[in-house]
Specification:
This protein is of the alpha+beta class and 225 residues long. The protein contains 3 helices and 5 strands.
Length: 225
């Protein structure tokens, strides 16, 4: 039973970690190489990795999507450790609108213009911080969605994820508050009810033992005769 609980808790933790890692904002130090627009088919299950289109195109199985090609500084441990090495990273640039996740992004055209303005070469690089959410997966053609971009003086900029820090602080406070409420509810309602049920069961068990004792004595009296 304990092993089963451990497995269930581990699965819940992995699912929550995956959801948070996908939807929470991440920051990459990048050099914009190119921007382009491409027609994308959205007719299979991989549609969940694309932004939900507006009402007028909700039934379409394909649409034009804008992309931003970059050279990104490699990072490890969820972005906490940055190296001098670079890798290719391609971002999609889609509005999220009022849908999930709630970034309320409506400025796709503006962001594409800012990315165009930041294009540079390896000989004369322009560095920028790309804020995005989502994952890059070449197998299923999934791309992280760019949310914002801002120029920086050098690739050695220090990025503090204030939103993520505040989010987890608030989440921890909510979890602690709900846990305290649950403990009070259990102590005031569930535990007394279980205690009363246990006492009632003990009383029933004692009556049953007394009844069995009387029946045994009655049988014993007949055996003596």
């Amino acid at each position: 039973m304990r092993r089963f609980r451990t497995i269930i808790r581990s699965l819940i933790f992995l699912i929550l970690f995956g959801v948070f890692h996908y939807v929470l904002p991440q920051h990459d130090v990048v050099r914009v190489v190119n921007t382009y627009q491409e027609r994308q088919d959205l007719g299979d299950w991989t549609r969940i990795f694309w932004a939900k289109p507006d009402d007028q195109s909700a039934t379409l199985v394909n649409r034009d999507v804008q992309f931003i090609q970059t050279r990104k500084k490699k990072t490890y441990l969820l972005g906490f450790i940055r190296t001098d090495a670079e890798e290719v990273m391609v971002y999609r640039n889609e509005d999220t609108g009022w849908g999930w996740p709630f970034y309320f992004k409506f400025d796709t055209a503006n962001l594409q213009t800012e990315a165009d303005d930041l294009q540079s070469t390896a000989e004369n690089p322009k560095w920028a911080v790309m804020t995005h959410y989502g994952w890059r997966n070449e197998l299923i053609s999934a791309f992280p969605n760019a949310v914002a971009i801002r120029p920086v003086a050098s690739p050695d900029v220090t990025i503090i994820p204030w939103f993520n820090i505040l989010f987890f602080i608030v989440l921890a406070a909510i979890v602690g508050f709900v846990r305290a409420l649950w403990r009070q509810f259990r102590e005031r309602s569930i535990d007394p009810a279980l205690e009363d049920a246990g006492e009632a069961w003990d009383a029933v068990d004692e009556r049953a033992d007394a009844a069995r004792g009387r029946f045994s004595r009655w049988l014993g009296s007949w055996r003596k005769k």
